[in-house]
Each structure stands twice: as C-alpha cells, then as structure tokens.
Amino acid sequence: MGQSVFYLKQSDLPKQWYNIQADLPAPLYPPINPATGKPISPDDLSPIFPKGVIEQEMTQERWIDIPEPVREILKIWRPSPLVRAVNLEKALNTPAKIFYKDESLSPAGSHKPNTAVAQAYYNKIEGVKRISTETGAGQWGSALAFATNLFGLQCTVYMVRVSYEQKPYRRTLMHLWNGEVFSSPTDKTDAGRAVRAKTPDTLGSLGIAISEAVEDAAKHPDTKYSLGSVLNHVIMHQTITGLEAKLQFEMAGVEPDILIGCAGGGSNVAGFIFPFVPEKLAGKKIQFIATEPTACPTLTKGPFRYDYGDTACLTPLMKMYTLGHNFIPSGIHAGGLRYHGMSPLVSLLCNQKLIEARAYSQNPVFEAARLFAQTERVIPAPETAHAIKAVVDEAVRCRETGEEKTIGFLLSGHGHFDLYSYDKYMENALEDYEHPDEAIKKSISELPDIDYSIE
Amino acid sequence: MGQSVFYLKQSDLPKQWYNIQADLPAPLYPPINPATGKPISPDDLSPIFPKGVIEQEMTQERWIDIPEPVREILKIWRPSPLVRAVNLEKALNTPAKIFYKDESLSPAGSHKPNTAVAQAYYNKIEGVKRISTETGAGQWGSALAFATNLFGLQCTVYMVRVSYEQKPYRRTLMHLWNGEVFSSPTDKTDAGRAVRAKTPDTLGSLGIAISEAVEDAAKHPDTKYSLGSVLNHVIMHQTITGLEAKLQFEMAGVEPDILIGCAGGGSNVAGFIFPFVPEKLAGKKIQFIATEPTACPTLTKGPFRYDYGDTACLTPLMKMYTLGHNFIPSGIHAGGLRYHGMSPLVSLLCNQKLIEARAYSQNPVFEAARLFAQTERVIPAPETAHAIKAVVDEAVRCRETGEEKTIGFLLSGHGHFDLYSYDKYMENALEDYEHPDEAIKKSISELPDIDYSIE
C-alpha cells in the first residue's frame, strides 16, 4: 500500500474562491423582494449584510481573491487532507477507491469555519460590532463564534430548540469562543414570541431561528446577520474544499467518478463539487450526488419554486427546492439537515439534472457511520453520515458490478458532539422517520404564489 | 510566514520503537514479587500478559521492530503532524517558537491508541480472546476498544467511577467499538466488592480499577490484562511520537530547547522525550519537563520508593515516585492524571534530574487550555492542558528575557469529551485543589517496607 493521505502545503492554499455563477448552464433565478415582486437590489440587503458580502452574493466574476487575513486564519487547519479510506474499502470488499476530504479537522470540527472566517472578516473591516445567526446542530454557530472571536466581534446565536437540548456541548464551544447562545424560538424577538404563542411546544426549526437572527440584525444598527449555508457567497467560500480536493486527486493520480456530499442548505455538497462542474459541462463523465434525510426530503420531494428562506417571511423569496417555509421536520439527529429550503445554486443544478439527490432514513445512515467509525479515523457527524450512506451504497454496487470507480466525498464534520445520537442508534431507539406525503403537500400548498420568468 | 505544519509521509512512519533501557544513565530497579521479595520473572507475569508483551517489558535491546500489521493500522492516522502554534505565539507576544505534536488526531482522540494497537496485536497472535483494562477519563479504555475491535478481540473496561459519571461520551466510544464498560469499583470482582463494602461513596481511582482488571484477567484463562501507561513496553510503544517529532523538528529546521508533556502514569511525556534523552546524556542542552496536578502531585511530593501499582496490592512492586497505593486524589477533571504512582522509567530519569516536574492546579490549567482553544486548532484535553500551562509559562518567561527558545510539547489529546469541565471552568466552579500534605504523609506512611539494592 502506498501513500493514502494527500497533504497540500500551506502555500498551496487556494488564493481565490470559485464562483459558479460565471459558468452556469442556465440562468439563475434572482431573489425577489416580496414587497415589490422585483429582483432585490444590493440596497435591499444592506440592513442585514455588509457590503463586501453583498458584492460577493451578486458578482458574476469567476474567481474572487481570498483576503490575506482570511487565508492566514484558514491556515490554522487548512489545507485539509484528502484521505483514501483504505480500511473502509477492505471492510466493504469493494474494488472501488474511496476518498474523503477531511473537514472534521477545523477548530469547530466541520467545514463551516471556511465561510465563518470570511464573513467575520468582511463584517470586521466595515466596522460591524456584532453578528447574529441561527444554528441547527450547532456546527454553524460554533464555527461563527470561533471566527468572530478571532476578529474581536461579538456573536449571538439562535440555536434550534431540539438541537439546543440534544447537543449541550456545542453550546459550550460557543461559550468557549465568547459567543452567546439562545434556544430558539426565544422571547427576545417578535418572530420568536409569535411562534411560542402559537406552538409553545415547538421543536424549533432553522426557518424560525433565521427569522429571529435576521430580526435581531435588522433592529440593531451595529449588528449584521450571517448565514451558514444556502446563499451564493457562502457556497463560494466553501469551494475551497473542492479546489483543494482537485489538486489532491491529481496528487493521488486518480480522477473521481462520483462525488458525494450531504445537503442541508447546500453549501457542503456545493463547495465540494462546484469546482468540478465545468469539467462535467465540458463533457467529462462524473456523477454528483446530494444526500438528505427522508425526514426533510427537500430535493427529493419538494417542488422547484419561489419561497421564503425563513418561517416569518422576513427574507427575500428564492427560487429553490422547498418543502414550504412552514415545514417543521421531525427531531432527527442530523440537525444541520433540517432545513425546508435549499441553496438556489444547488437547486438550479439539480433542476438541470447535473446533481442527483437521494434521501435516507436514520438507521441505515447511522449503520454506515458506525462502519466508518470502526474502520477509519473519524467518527462522522450525523449530517456527514448521510453522505457516507451513499458512498457505501455505491461501493457495494461496485463490488457487485466489478467496477473500480473512484468515489470522493466531503467528510464535512466529526460527530464528537453527537454521540448521544450514536447512543440512541445503538439502543435501537432511532426512528426511521419518513415525513408523510400529506403533510408535505400541506406545507407546499402554503407556498407564496409568486414566480418570475427569465428572458 | 512559511510552512507551519510539518507532515511526514506514511512511509516515514518509524519501523522500530526505541527502548530507553539500552541507554539508561543508572540501572533500573527491577519489579519485585511481593511474595518472594525477589525480582519478578517472565513466568510471574504470564497469567496476565501475553509472551510478546512480557518480552518487550524486559528486553534491553535498543530498537524493537514494529510488526507490519501494527504499522498498517497506525497509518489510519499516523504519522501525526508537528505544528507550529503561530497564533498562540502571537497571542502571548513571545519570541519563543512553540511546536506541538498533535496526537489528538487518532480515532480515540489521544496518543493512547499507539500502544493499544500494539498490545491488541500481541494478544491476538497468541490466541487471547478478551482483554481487560482500567481507564480513568476513558482515553485509554476507548483507545483499547478501538484497537481490539480491529483485531476481533473482546474488551472489558473498568472505568473510574468519577470519570464514568463525568464523561459519558467516552463510554459511548467504547460501545461504538464494541467494548463493554463498567463503573469501578464494580460488584464483579473481589477487589471491587471490598472497596464498595469499605467506602461505598468512593470516587474510585486508577489503583482500584487496575485491581479489578488484573483480577478479571487472572481469573479467566482466555483473558489477558492490558495497561495504558506506566510499564516499559507501553512507554516503548509511545516513543513513536518522539521519533516522528525528531524528524519533524529537522524538517522545521529547529532544535528543541524544551520538551514538555503531562504525566499521569508517564507514557505520554516519556514517549515524546525519551528519543531525545541520548542527546542530552551526550551533553546537549535540552530541558525536559513533566507536568502533573497539585491534586495528585506524584513527582513533586511523592518519595522514590517501592510500591504497588494498584490498591488491592495485586501487581508487582515497582520502584517509582508514589503517593502510596491507598492515595485517592480528588475528583479533578484530568482523570488521566489521577494515578498514585509513576512509570519506573520516568521516575528513574526524574530521580537522575534528567526530567524536572511541575504541578499545577485546575484554574490556571484551564486558563491556558482556553487560550490554546481560542488561538489554535485543538481544544485540549484537561490532561494535555497541564502541559500547555507549562508551555505558556516558559513562553512568557522568554518574552521577559527575550530568549528565542524552541518549545515542543505533546498535544496528547483533544477535550471534546471533557467539555463539561470547560463549562465548570467558565462558571468559576472549578476548585484549585491542592492535596493536603498531612493526607499525603498518611498514605505514604502505608507504603510497603521493601527495598532492593542494585549492585
């Protein structure tokens, strides 16, 4: 066995992010201001985002420079290694080659700091004092707290109630990095109070927590809002994973046949695969797979429609796969995948059949995660485990067909703060929840009746 | 800033362990059979250890081959990187260069799997079916469960009660790797039942848990015992960290002036510094520091005497620094440092003034840990944080004197399963416990009246 870990030098850390907006196979639908029915302008976004971020959200430039102070901080853990999962291959007795890009090595334990550092930087240079945000499982909230702390900014995190209870130690991380954390819905915002009045026992949702964080930013002039996924600039920041991986697949002397990532808001899978999209558009045979939970089957059961990003309808409307902004998924352990919508960019590429989607329920996902944890270095986060389930399926298919495919996936984070979920799995106490079609139909029926046609 | 992470290739993974017994500056006192008062023979150990391990415990050979199947498993995460803590240096405004050898990257999150894999291998090839062991914070128990699972062995872990309660997720790890875990003292062994009868509210101790695990092995012919620190073979397996670090300091173009590790049973600091000892014996100026808690000040307050390794007096007598086998430290969060004794090899080198020892209480230790977590990639384990406290002290001293020393330390593990301790620290709820001298005097007075003179 030769080398199975592929490291880049720190000087190989990409100097530019890749912006897929320059290479889309079809035009991207613009976000719509619900008040006017027209595409939003940069000014519409300025109450909640700094200018630097708004520019990045809208730019059509293919390559965007990564500021040096951002690169310096990313070097605390980047470039991340690409690892061949030799022991998993053996355990599966597959002729497939399996590679994972290990994003679990960041201080917060996931890919999330890749964008958190950049966003904190752009807020800092524009004099913002505090950043508000939402978080599901806490991967994003802890990443932002880590980043804001390095830049001397304050950080307020609205954490979805079910995860706030399930994952107390992600709260500890935020405290360690000087962030404040509240269980959402809170009584601190109009949006939160409204939900609590109507459904006091709610598990919370990312949609609700987004409403709270946006309202907080909109009401405080020294505060801006930050989102950990979905938006174009977030995805652009995450392309650092795919850009590094491209170099590393070359070092390994292989070309990936299949690339896989899990999809909550979409930045994880998008950051990993987008740098490979131009090759596919140019005719190269490469398969992209986004995986999600059957409890929140946005890509597999949602329509491609305009919808709000949040429950209280404070955000612009975005054209995306969506289960409806009133959709509340069950309290599955992959808190980061409990989002009703999906990145408009990922949605467009799914709609164009460039990315395929698969949905899995909890037990098969944790079975794959356990196998990975028993054979490889990392105990994967429940979100990541959705990607691993697809990897295992594809590797088993290769065993059956004899194909020696090269499969790459983004190991988006470790599950060290999700071990309660593993306990439940090992106690056979996890539900294989599939959200009922009737309930999905109902929340979809509440979608706003808005469309926009691109000439 | 140039490269600040130093990776070795997998082919650079050491092919041999270093055995310091070949290079000792003074003879090592042999372990004594308490029944005969004479040095133990290999046969004395055969009820509880496999032959391969006994040979390694006693050999005087300088270099011992690492079996290929062990190297193959170590490659899941090794060689581990040596990292320059650039951001910590900046935060401390020190001219010192600080390097850490990152052992937090193993599947169990610490240096412990380095020996767990080797020990599981030697048991496997001799047909052992099950391994019993003790664990403090659970670092060792989880490491052994990981390793035994890969070799298809069963694993039974006696986990010190206070840690069993404080660190539930290290139990989850052991379950994930198919180990069984009991809160020690249990009612499954004579040793455990005796302690429970006498002191039902005991916090437990490593000494008690060792008694239980040894008894379990001695009573079951298909079962052997395994120890995660203290003994010569364990320390030899851990020299892989220091051997790799030597190569990496060369890559970095520096020569370490100070090397630091924390000391519970001693394998952590010993594995890191022993490969550098011959240079020091040859006259090179290099300082070795072992750090420990004031709640369990073995090296700083214990005498260098023969004592039992466990509470029930089942082990051979070892000449070491010891607080007495009846010593029960307070329930500090660095569970891995709650051991009354110390590796005879480390003890000898301390006694020879080659290693110096320092003791710290909890709050300054966690303060150093928080600073590290806010500036570098890793949230350190409470044990590791004892080393970091000394690193920070030395770096601050360099700031004051202007010396540009190169300081290296073993980052022995991450603290992801110790965040409860960080919570307590941030709530100002940690005690700065110093074990009372009177109590130490009492437990020392109960040392066995045995000595052995080496001609």
**Terminal Cα separation of chain A, in Å?**
55 Å
Oligomer: homodimer
Largest interface: A-B, 43 and 42 residues
User: Order of strands across the biggest sheet of chain A?
Assistant: 1-6-7-17-12-13-16
Mean pLDDT of chain A: 95
Supply the CATH architecture of the largest domain in chain A. Answer: 3-Layer(aba) Sandwich
Unreliable sequence segments of chain A: none
Number of domains of chain A: 2
Strand tally of chain A? 17
Describe the biggest sheet of chain A?
7 strands, mixed
Counting helices, strands and paired strands, the structural category of chain A is alpha/beta
Taken as a percent bin, the fraction of beta residues of chain A is 15-25%
Helix content of chain A: 40-55%
The dominant shape of chain A is globular
Overall description:
Two copies of one chain form a homodimer. Chain A has 19 helices and 17 strands. In chain A, helix 5 packs parallel to helix 6. Chain A has 455 residues and is α/β, with parallel strands linked by helices. In chain A, strand 8, helix 6 and strand 9 form a beta-alpha-beta unit. Chains A and B meet through helix 8, helix 16 and helix 18 of A and helix 8, helix 16 and helix 18 of B.
What's the quick description here?
The structure is a homodimer of 455-residue chains. Chain A has helices spanning 42-45, 51-58, 68-74, 86-92, 113-125, 139-151, 161-166, 168-176, 190-198, 206-219, 232-252, 267-273, 277-281, 298-301, 344-351, 362-375, 382-401, 419-426, 437-445; strands spanning 5-6, 16-18, 32-33, 38-39, 63-65, 82-84, 97-102, 130-135, 154-160, 180-184, 223-225, 258-262, 287-293, 304-308, 317-321, 355-360, 406-411. The first copy, chain A, has 455 residues and is an alpha/beta fold.
